[in-house]
Each structure stands twice: as structure tokens, then as C-alpha cells.
Specification:
The chain is an alpha/beta fold and about 220 residues long. Helices cover about 30% and strands about 20% of the residues. Helix 2 crosses helix 3.
């Protein structure tokens, strides 16, 4: 079981935290991480591209000249692909680029991505990361204290102030991983983390609450 230092918002070490090997110490599966990244990027594509084939371009119903005796190559329509204003060969059409990974693959990819941050010593655990007001300067001060320029900040709560305070900082993104429990004891996971963001940003800054809840869900 790995152990990491816990820092406060001033950048001082205030303790340590044990990480569950079932989440932060698995064998890294690069193939599943790659598939998860490809899926994420494919889901971002709108797939609304469209061009006309020769059958969809207006006009071109009459043969431009007779078949033989003109000295020209034979032509059947002025809307054929080789003509200016003609249709496109194998024209792109609207399509859905998305595909699915099953739940087991998604969970394994997340575990692999989190483990890679630990192996590369790019995981920083904060005791807490809250801002009382929307203030970009305060978040920037925390990042400077931790000596971090490009980071994914993972909060254990949905903090609107933190989200709005960090959104104008280049190469910084705020995500959340929170568990909501109702009166009947049912748990709902509210999360917007993904493998792409975990790998894209050079450092993962996670609060203790976020790490605890990740281990509760993915262990």
C-alpha cells in the first residue's frame, strides 16, 4: 500500500495518507487507457459533415455532347466528379462516431490512469481545497505554492466557487467526484472525471475527500 504526503493550501505538508492498491496500485493497462481516450475524443465529434454526391448535385441530366466524333473524351454528365461543380466521390455524410466501452473496461481504465499518476509521482493530495468567493488569484496562489503549472484539480464536492475561480487559468481544469447518499442509504455518484483529462494534465491535485470516495467506489 502506497503512502503519499498530504498538503494544505499553503503548500506545507500536514500529514500522510495511505492509498488503496486496488485503485492506485494496479497493473497499468495501456490498451484500455488508449481505448478510453479514443472513446472520449470520438464522443466530442459532432459528425455533422456533409457533401453532395453526383446524384445530389443539381443539374447534369443532359449528356454534354454526343458520344463519338467530337474529339473530346466521352462524358455523361457535367455533374460527374471530374467536372467543376460536380459531386464528390465517397462524399462524407452525417454519422455518429461514438462507441461504447463496458463498465468493467471503464473502471479498469480509470484505475490504470490513477495508478500512472502515482507511479510518475504526479499525484498531490490536498487536505482541502475550498474558496469562499470567486477569486482566481486565490487558486493561482495555491498552484504556485505547490509549484504546479498544468493540473487537473479533483474535488470531493461540487464547488461552484472553485470551478469559476479556476476556469480562467490556462492549463488548469476542475473536476469533481462526489457521493450523494439519500435517506434510504442509496448512493449516487456525481462525477465528471475521465481518463483523457487525468492523462492530459501533468499533475493530478486531489482533495482527501475525493481520494477517499474514489477508493470507496473503485476498490
Amino acid at each position: 500500500m502506497a503512502s503519499v504526503s498530504v498538503f494544505n493550501m499553503e503548500g506545507s505538508e500536514v500529514g500522510t495518507m495511505d492509498l488503496d492498491d486496488a485503485v492506485f496500485g494496479v497493473d497499468i493497462n495501456e490498451h484500455l487507457m488508449h481505448m478510453s481516450v479514443v472513446q472520449y475524443l470520438a464522443d466530442q465529434r459532432q459528425g455533422t459533415q456533409k457533401a453532395k454526391t453526383r446524384s445530389e448535385v443539381r443539374g447534369g441530366g443532359r449528356k454534354p455532347w454526343r458520344q463519338k466524333g467530337t474529339g473530346h473524351a466521352r462524358q455523361g454528365s457535367i455533374r460527374a466528379p471530374q467536372w467543376k461543380g460536380g459531386g464528390m466521390v465517397f462524399a462524407p455524410v452525417p454519422r455518429d462516431y461514438s462507441f461504447r466501452l463496458n463498465k468493467k473496461e471503464k473502471r479498469a481504465a480509470i484505475r490504470s490512469a490513477l495508478t500512472s499518476r502515482v507511479v510518475d509521482e504526479k499525484l498531490i493530495v490536498l487536505e482541502d481545497f475550498t474558496v469562499d468567493e470567486i477569486k482566481t488569484k486565490k487558486v493561482k496562489g495555491v498552484l504556485d505554492a505547490l509549484n504546479v503549472n498544468k493540473a487537473l484539480i479533483l474535488s470531493g464536492t461540487i464547488d461552484r466557487n472553485l470551478l469559476l475561480s479556476a476556469r480562467n487559468i490556462p492549463n488548469v481544469k476542475v473536476a469533481h467526484f462526489a457521493l450523494d447518499k439519500d435517506a434510504e442509504g442509496n448512493t449516487t455518484v456525481r462525477s465528471d472525471i475521465n481518463v483523457y483529462d487525468i492523462l492530459k494534465y501533468s499533475t493530478l491535485i486531489a482533495t482527501k475527500d475525493a481520494v477517499t470516495q474514489l477508493q470507496e467506489v473503485y476498490a
